[in-house]
Design goal:
about 350 residues; Rossmann fold; Helicase, Ruva Protein, domain 3; two-stranded antiparallel ribbon; ATP hydrolysis activity; Holliday junction branch migration complex subunit RuvB; AAA+_ATPase; nucleotide-binding; DNA-binding
């Protein structure tokens, strides 16, 4: 059973580690510079900032930037998500309660229902929505004026957004994965806020296993802190970090238990593939969506797994990473096999 108090503590720690302004925000140099110009110009005009769309993988700072936008504009923020808005009425209730200049953060905006999405078009462009009263031939549309507000949409799958919605955002920023050096800066900042003494070598060890993602880096830092407090002298150095991450099954490239399970099943049960995603998910005892959305993107990015028309295939790098030799498989027609010769 999950301890609800522990979950609240983790959320509180994550909130405490979030940067409060653009000056504190590490990484995403181009997005940060562009966004700074947008916000400075809006403040100089005394106007509400343009609507902002942030895309990128989970954990890169989209929610943090939305909070920074509100702080920089001196405005309150309302936070909701696409899956929570299943009807146009849900969106109308939120929009009608906004105050002038308020920031509405809509996470996973691509998962919003189509009727709500169509209502959002008019709200973003004209600051107005039409509320339908009644049903059938007697239904009446009542126009409802909205105060100027800033919508900050976040999505992990920008390609699923329809063009009419994308085009209504005044600024679009794509969040990139972090370089190890940037993650080390994030870790040193977080360690200072947590009161944890962290050496440069310790921060580098954690950064190298964090998948280029600040959220993962901060989570691993907290687990390494626990290990250092219980089994070491409380200092997060290279040795304590490596030992702690071994306990938590995070290897030197950042692969966790699920990642290695997927690769091992692919190599040992299916000879490296190709194999269908559904079959692979059954082999590791996980849902198809979990394998596809959690493990697969990182394995593909690391060059350990490839998607092909026939299914998922392990690359030679995957065999080497797990200390195994790729089989030599001559292809039809006398050409080289899938893994080369």
């Amino acid at each position: 059973m999950v301890d609800a108090a522990a979950d609240r503590d983790d959320l509180a720690v994550e909130a405490a580690l979030r940067p409060k302004d653009l000056g504190e925000f590490v990484g995403q140099t181009r997005v940060r510079e562009q966004l700074d110009l947008v916000l400075r110009a809006a403040r100089a005009r005394g106007a509400t900032a343009d609507h902002v769309l942030l895309s990128g993988a989970p954990g890169l700072g989209k929610t943090t930037l939305s909070m920074i936008i509100a702080a920089e504009m001196g405005a309150p923020i309302r936070i909701t998500s696409g899956p929570a808005i299943q009807h146009a009425g849900d969106l109308a209730a939120i929009l009608s309660s906004l105050t002038e200049g308020e920031v509405l953060f809509l996470d996973e905006i691509h998962r919003m229902s189509r009727p709500a999405e169509e209502m959002l078009y008019m709200a973003m462009e004209d600051f107005r929505v039409d509320v339908i009263v009644g049903k059938g031939p007697g239904a009446t549309a009542i126009p409802l004026e909205l105060p100027p507000f800033t919508l900050v949409g976040a999505t992990t799958r920008a390609g699923l957004l329809p063009p009419p919605l994308r085009d209504r955002f005044g600024f679009t920023g794509h969040m990139e994965f972090y370089a190890p050096a940037e993650l080390e800066r994030v870790l040193h900042r977080s360690a200072g806020l947590l009161g944890v003494h962290t050496t440069d070598e310790g921060a580098a060890e954690i950064a190298g296993r964090s998948r280029g993602t600040p959220r993962i880096a901060n989570r691993l830092l907290r687990r390494v802190r626990d290990y250092a407090q219980v089994r070491a002298d409380g200092v997060v150095n290279q040795e304590s970090a490596a030992r702690a991450l071994a306990v938590y099954e995070v290897d030197e490239r950042g692969l966790d238990r699920l990642d290695r399970a997927v690769l091992l099943a692919l190599l040992k049960l299916f000879g490296g593939g190709p194999v269908g995603l559904a079959t692979l998910a059954v082999a590791v005892g996980e849902e198809r969506e979990t394998v596809e959305e959690v493990a697969e993107p990182f394995l593909v990015r690391e060059g350990l797994l490839a998607r092909t028309p026939r299914g998922r295939v392990a690359t030679p790098a995957a065999w080497r990473h797990l200390g195994m030799e790729p089989p030599q498989q001559p292809a039809p027609g006398g050409q080289e096999g899938l893994f080369g010769t």
